[in-house]
Specification:
homotetramer, 9 helices, five-stranded antiparallel beta sheet
């Protein structure tokens, strides 16, 4: 299932950056879920570039729902969301010269030159607009089940935000103009990205995502662990190059006696004193918040002259990229990660509790 | 597919630590692949605890192939491998007290108390014996296709091995008594693990895996990216809490101009000057070695008194684990990661080139 | 995967009869396959009602390809085909009274009343327009691989067509104005359907499908037999209530000595003297033509007064259906069966020979 | 998923007729389901040949459960059932000459000569022993949820049993010594099969299966219709060549006004007056009994001299089969169909109601 994620609730992505539209198809969603134009627009606008920290391409993201919604609610049948492309300047792209660290060359090898090369084609970040529209349906539905998801920039170059410390942070992030918890850090990041853009460069970062309100018992013992499903989905984004859960790479120099999460019965609810495991033990959620970090690489498209090859002729070449690009995707990736996480959680819930779970709630 | 990985070539795991057997079922493997008892035994012995760095439980791992192999070769039908459990001391385990950071509590929530709690049951590292047997079939088959896979300990506490620098390192690792490249580092790690054991503690680490010889063009654009498939499979191991590719988390403070991998035509072969992307662009292999790191947490089972709850009564409790345990799994996880990686690669090849690829080779 | 068929090459259907559009998403198709507007239109027109044997609803079927096609060829990424609905008269439908033998009541139970009830919603035959558009891409691609698919009406009430006797029949059917081999039978069927319409009734039938040019060795030994895959896909059509292969139900009163298909080497090619098994032995194709029959029930929507219940109130009721309906779908189902068969064959080929097979051909 | 059926609850088959064992792996079953040795043995004995109507091969079917069961109940983790082969006479089989209508030639093409050819290898009816063991776990679990499944011989040559007329018939069949409803018919079938054996021949037949107690709303609108799932699974059996639901092929000469199933509210429960649709409308169960027929071909292995080819040399040849064979599988296929049906139903329930459904019941 090449462009599809999920088992009980699935999402398939389609579209090319300079084709007629990008879109997503949701199948297996419970019937009766409210579909709010406002929520979808809000989620789309969180991803949409709107200032000079982002690409100059301006898409209105006037999404269309072609199926699966009736009288404002899901019918239970597939929802096809299409977002037409309007602001395309295909002339900016020339066939042949592979942009370093972008998918161009790998796609050429995979598709033998038949791929739509313009603006990254099917590999373009543009397709994530469709993902955020999906989030605009799933995130509110999960909130009604008591599940809140939030993502912020944890790092951009040497600017570090403070980690998420509770449900209030997650709620704050769902509406924040800039996805950081510490305002000063936000200003520093703005400065870093602006400087990168001015120097025809790009910059990477780290995100942190938290999921509050998950029941214990989600995920499977071996290959479909909660970490497996989340990482699988998250690595769908080309710019993500790493993920870890809880203490993650910090475990590499740790001792069990320091980092084991002791259990405790707190007023009838079993919790852990620390959450170094990021809410997952042996691949199964343990009722604590699920916490993970993602490493996001700098946008490969920079306006400097770069060495590369022409994929058609095979010859060495120099490339100066002219298209409109983001100097950093670290900010725009936050709502995309929220949406992806929502898909994974909604699917895990549907598998465990059945296809009506999003409407009926857990139990 | 709860305990199954793969689409064209699949592997399913079964078994409990103290049940009759652990095992694996391989489906979709090409017919005519040599199945060598020697290779399977070698792979099993790499994982098997054999000295006092590991658990005192000693299993001979006398595997049985119940199906799918005829006259020394695969038939193309499902191969069921069973490895009987013999050295079990179930009396070491008491029902109820959840071991901190282990799957006990999460499994209790998932399976409502019907799970086999003895020795971690289906969550036990014992099941990885079956995984390594699978590797004993797939790794030699991939080598015949020109694909070599190797894993070493990159870090254990403050001991750091040097990174894999070429195919020779990978070849060396496939037979190394201790999976490190720098002998001195190996001694330091031995010391660290020994000390952890002596102080009733455990210690974490990092691994690095490299795959040489992959063709460009494997993986899918969105949800089945090469990173998605590898991370999905790798997080099947309960102790793994992070993965990154190439520069990975190092991208978080990097600039595009520093880390983009320039393409170059070197004698007719297109390569990249650097390999910060770990052989994958936009989710698709680019022909460079695939490189990833895993973060492995300290074994949760330590012999010190720990605070926990009794999952049956819900009451707070103290636990002193008596079973036989590894003070570190970082060493034994290396052949397991080789095997898991082999499964992912074999599946990706089968999807792209068809079900006979492992016998016929690529192209 | 509720509305998706296939493993390596997949097709997902979406849309409601009276919603904005119906459509299909193809994923996993080889890059470089020609997409011909003429072929798609021809396939759509074969299904489209065009005379008074069919419903009075007239849809122009102006399909749009939203993604996955570039410069007239497939890119290898998902193809989303949307066919807007234009000629809808939703006022013809009232909520509540379940049409006997139609999906209304079952859908109400499944979707709890949130389904789009107008004109059968997602269960409408209208969705098969999208299926035939898919066939308009796959059928020509298969023909270039030497594989020809054809379907005709074998029976309608007491009118019987002669069975397909060779490749020429299949070629004839791909362009036939009326899908029968015997012209006189076609006239008789026309008469039967006309009479049914005039008496406010509907009539059932049988189809026969043949696939010529398949290599031996497709299909899997147990649950993914060639018969399993074909029947799975064919029963996607609500009106199909039976399928059999080769002699099929004729086997029930047969003896092995009469019906076993003897093998013979004919000029270097191994064939069977008879083809009672319909080209499939033990679930695997044997190189002979694959032949199957489908039983198609009379359209449930008839204009007579029928007894039923109101699904909302649960009360007994009488129903007189007013919408525009087909007195028989047996004719229109033929191109739909061609398309469905093409999907199954294309997927089986992709699984066995890899994702490029439709472009490179079988080898 | 070549030898696997199901999505939420899955079953994988493995083994060869003359290999060490045949077996099945169940994944996704709810924890806490009773596993009764008596029920499994009863189901195995219903399939096991025990008189001279069946093959002379006598296997004790001493099954072993290798995993997934603890203290007499399912744990929720994979259950691996292995049934060792003991009574094998591999000398009876010679490589090369394809048995007409058997899988030998097709398997040779698929597996390129690496298949285990002895006794049909992986295509042998012997593998259905494992399927019936699975039924020995699932059938009692479904009964506790109020769902009863039964299969009988509807036809064998010209002997016709009466159709299933209610739940009592289904209950009767679950324990019947010979799977027919009309005793006289049973005697006639015994005679027909005996005569076929005596004349070195084999004979086909038809079965009828009924499922009582299903809730309305199971199945999916397009490709995963209830008919799709059932037919997919049933065609896993090589001898099955046709399936139809309700009136099935009888619809081909019927008119809507005659066969539409009128709905009626009977004391608060919505039923249909007739059940020509076999309990399924538009692919979704409607709460009426699900009824289907299967066409079963005569066993291809007959002891007469037959014309064939040698698959290795490609030359024409004559074959006289010496192995021990069934003159008819129509009797033994009944418990196998019960088991397969149980798998499909259990999976559909798990998808809709979640993974705990078999323990908690529907609702």
């Amino acid at each position: 299932m090449k462009n599809t994620f999920g088992q009980s609730l699935t999402v398939t992505l389609f579209g090319e950056s300079h084709g007629p539209a990008v879109g997503a198809l949701i199948d297996g969603i419970a019937p009766g879920i409210e579909v709010s134009d406002e929520e979808i627009k809000r989620q789309l606008s969180r991803r949409r570039p709107s200032d000079n920290l982002a690409t100059a391409r301006r898409e209105p993201d006037n999404y269309q729902i072609l199926s699966g919604v009736f009288e404002g609610r899901t019918t239970g049948t597939p929802i096809c969301i299409s977002i037409p492309n309007t602001d395309t300047r295909s002339g900016d792209y020339e066939r042949g010269k592979a942009r370093p660290s972008h998918a161009d060359y790998a796609a050429y090898c995979k598709y033998h030159g038949f791929e739509d090369y313009r603006g990254g084609g099917h590999f373009s970040g543009r397709i994530t607009a469709a993902l955020t529209a999906v989030g605009g349906i799933l995130l509110p539905a999960l909130r009604k089940c008591g599940i809140n998801i939030g993502t912020h920039i944890l790092r951009c170059a040497d600017a570090l935000d403070r980690p998420i410390s509770g449900l209030d942070d997650v709620r704050y992030l769902s509406d924040a103009a800039f996805p950081v918890l510490d305002e000063a850090c936000g200003e520093k990041i703005t400065e870093i990205i602006t400087k990168a853009r001015e120097s025809c460069d790009s910059v990477g970062g780290e995100t942190q995502t938290a999921v509050f309100g998950l029941p214990a018992g989600l995920g499977e013992p071996w290959f479909d662990s909660a970490e497996s499903m989340l990482s699988h989905a998250v690595f769908g984004i080309g710019g993500v190059k790493g993920i870890d859960f809880g203490l993650g790479f910090g475990f590499g120099s740790a001792y069990g006696s320091e980092v084991n999460d002791a259990f405790r019965n707190e007023n009838g609810k079993i919790i852990t004193e620390t959450n170094n495991n990021g809410g997952i033990n042996g691949g199964i959620t343990n009722g604590m918040p699920v916490i993970f970090r993602c490493a996001v690489k700098p946008t490969p498209s920079i306006s400097r002259v770069q060495k590369t090859v022409d994929v058609v002729t095979g010859e060495n070449a120099e490339l100066e990229i002219k298209g409109r690009h983001d100097p950093a995707i670290i900010r725009r990736v936050c709502p995309v990660l929220d949406s992806i996480t929502a898909i994974v959680i909604a699917d895990m819930l549907s598998q465990r509790y059945g296809t009506d779970v999003l409407r009926k709630g857990i139990n």
